[in-house]
Amino acid sequence: MPKDSSLEAHVTAPRSVRDLQKYYQKLPVEFIPEVTPHILDFRNINSTLEDKDSLLRVTDTISSEILATVYGEFLGEQADPIILEPINVYEHTSLPGLRILPSLLPILVQESLLSKLLLRDLSNQEHLTNVHLHYNVTYPEADKSFFDLPISTTFTPKDPDVHKPLSVVEALEKKLRWMTLGGQYDWTTKEYPNGPPVQFPKDLRNLIHGLFPDVEPEAAICNTYSPGDTLSPHRDVSEEADKDLISMSIGCDALFLISLSPEFQDDNAVPPTTTVASPKPQPQKQNKKKKGKEPPPPPPPLDTHTIIIRIRSGDAVVMGGQSRWAWHGVPKVIGETCPEELSQWPSLCDHKTPDNADKIDWTGWMKRKRVNLNIRQMYEPSGPN
Ligand SMILES: O=C(O)CCC(=O)C(=O)O
Ligand SMILES: [Fe+2]
Predict the structure, then answer these.
(1) Where do the segments described as Disordered lie (predicted)?
(2) pLDDT by residue (tens digit) across 143-182?
(3) Of ligand 1's atoms, which has the minimum distance to the CA of residue 328?
(4) Residue to mutate, 117, 223, 234, 325, ligand 1, most ligand atoms under 8 Å from C-beta
(5) Using CA positions, which residue lies closest to atom 9 of ligand 1?
(6) In angstroms, what is the span from residue 257 Cα to ligand 2's centroid?
(7) Is the distance from the beta carbon of residue 155 to the nearest atom of ligand 1 less than 6 Å?
(8) What is the band of 274 on the pLDDT scale with cuts at 50, 70, 90?
(9) pLDDT above 60 for 267
(10) At a CB cut-off of 8 Å and minimum separation 6, what does 76 contact?
(11) Measured at the alpha carbon of residue 250, what is the angle toward residues 239 and 101, in degrees to the nearest 5?
């Protein structure tokens, strides 16, 4: 679906999308079950799929052979071959071109991807982060990561009148929100800089291209979230190529809101009798008071081009076709949902001994985090215009 000239990077989302974002951002986690009929949750879709009027369909699969080859190469020869079930690709009538691949990445791949991103790529000085905007970042020595830096490490502010020095604990625990790989996207100008992009990490390129051969990964944003963090509704419109945008998530669950831009709404694409965008609504439970908290008001209605998906660790979302330019955001990250197998990460770090008493024990950092890798192709194969 070619990019429309009306797709401006600085335009704000429509009111309806902002209202939904605000509602789910404010919704206390304990009330999520009460609004479940509005949320597409792939752990509860079996009855939906059996329904002939369902808006959700399996439209494709990735074969076990492809998965085994791609993951085998990514994990290296030392890994035992992994036996894998084919992965279903789901599409939803309300958002043509959106593909959802629940549990695409096995835990071993998720763990290895985390380590490559956060222990290796974060230490590469070519990969900028939001922390670089305001601080002079102190780097670990070669082959070490930020998780190895001594507890006394601080980053000095670029403008001491505006920011205080930032400790490495504050930086990794809370402040770090994104890192850019490949083409270094500038969040202020919302542009990719001119000139040759930074080389995209080869093993990550092969993983992504192996699973999604139509896309040549040239740039990625690695987002890190803690519960309470959000990503406001936006469209990713800075790329010249209209290739699919691929998003992979690891760690805590999140609610992901996606709504087709009005320019791309073709009402013939949705059966005219359909008014519900998500799984069939079930009888709404009476909102009981929980732990003294006031029950929330009912959620704003979803129009026929908007869905909210509960994204879990290992899931991938691919925005292609008309959905490539859809409004999307993350109103909520749900704490205490990180898979047990990842919750100790980065347990690889050396443990405290009398010789490294200044070292921080980061075991369990991941338990409190969601990491999202958002991959883009910037240019058509002919290169930049
Ligand atoms: O975290 C997510 O699921 C979405 C991230 C995103 O939309 C972006 O980086 O542009
Ligand atoms: Fe995005």
Answers:
(1) 268-305
(2) 999 999 999 999 999 999 999 999 999 999 999 999 999 9
(3) 7
(4) 223
(5) 374
(6) 11
(7) no
(8) very low
(9) no
(10) none
(11) 70
* Ligand 1 site, residue 374, Cβ cutoff 6 A: yes
pTM here is 0.90
Average per-residue pLDDT in the chain? 88
Instruction: Specify whether the CB–CB gap between 230 and 26 falls below 8 A.
Output: no
CA of 355 to the centre of ligand 1 (A): 41
Q: CA separation (Å) from 153 to 87, 147, 157, 165, 366? A: 44, 11, 13, 10, 21
- Whether ligand 1 lies within 6 angstroms of the CB of 154 is answered as no
65 residue type, one letter? E
- At 256, phi and psi to the nearest 5? -120, 125
DSSP string, 288-309: --BTTBPPPPPPPPP-TTEEEE
236 is in an annotated binding site: yes
**315 labelled binding-site residue:** no
Question: What ipTM score was computed for the predicted complex, to two decimals?
Answer: 0.99
Stretch 283-300: mean pLDDT, rounded? 68
> Are the C-beta atoms of residues 328 and 234 closer than 8 Å to each other?
yes
Distance (angstroms) between ligand 2 centre and the Cα of 166 equals: 28
Q: Is the CB of 231 under 6 A from ligand 1?
A: yes
Q: What separation in Å is there between the alpha carbon of 256 and the centre of ligand 2?
A: 10
Q: Would you kindly state where each structural domain of the chain is located, as residue ranges?
A: 15-129+177-282+291-376
Q: Which atom of ligand 1 is nearest to the CA of 249?
A: 3
Q: Which fold has domain 15-129+177-282+291-376?
A: Jelly Rolls (2.60.120)
For the Cβ of 330 lying below 6 angstroms from any atom of ligand 1, the answer is yes
Report whether 40 contacts 29 (CB < 8 A). Answer: no
**Is the CB of residue 126 less than 8 Å from the CB of residue 181?**
no
Q: Which of 130, 339, 359, 162 is nearest to 253 (CA)?
A: 339
234 is in an annotated binding site: yes
Q: How far is CA 184 from the centre of its chain?
A: 18
Q: In which element (H, E) is residue 89 found?
A: strand 87-92
- Alpha carbon distance 55, 271 (integer Å): 9
